[in-house]
# Entry
Amino acid sequence: MSVLLRRARFSRGGAWAVGLALLPLLALCALWVSGFHINMTASLPYGLYREVDVPVQRGVLVLACLPQGPHAELARQRHYLSPGHCPARLAPLIKPVVAVAGDQVVFADAAVEVNGVALTNSAALPRDPSGHPMPRPQPRQQRLADGQLLLVSSYNPGSFDGRYFGVLDADAVHAVVEPVLTWHRRGMR
# Structure
């Protein structure tokens, strides 16, 4: 067998191997372009979420970018958020909207309260698992103005969310999302 024929066979085999290796990456890109997002953080169930055409309101899940500033820098330094395409060069958050314009919010030690009701699993931890002190929003009590939102996940009491960085401007929201296929440590839902 000639060297040329062996090279041709290797080249074709190598091309197939490269193509097969790139297939998962291409599938992920196609999902992202189609409005699908993968959550691999413990703040919400792991899984696949898709963008939906629903207005931002209390109770919906949103894909939002933490604005540039001290909280984004803290999230980057402590690896609370992965690198990503948001303006602060961090991955977007997927969090539920728990308060909107007109709502009264209190960042109490025992829980975040919205309109006098304590949110489940919303107590701010004084320190993260590595022992670093956690920030607290200021002011501790406020009425949300037009264009403001509060994002807090009750799914995981250790979630990095509004209990630490406070209120966000509504323009931080990229999209409203809903779960498509999610799972917990014990199985799919």
Q: What stands out?
A: The mean pLDDT is 87. Residues 76 and 134 are 14 Å apart (CA to CA). The chain has three helices and twelve strands.
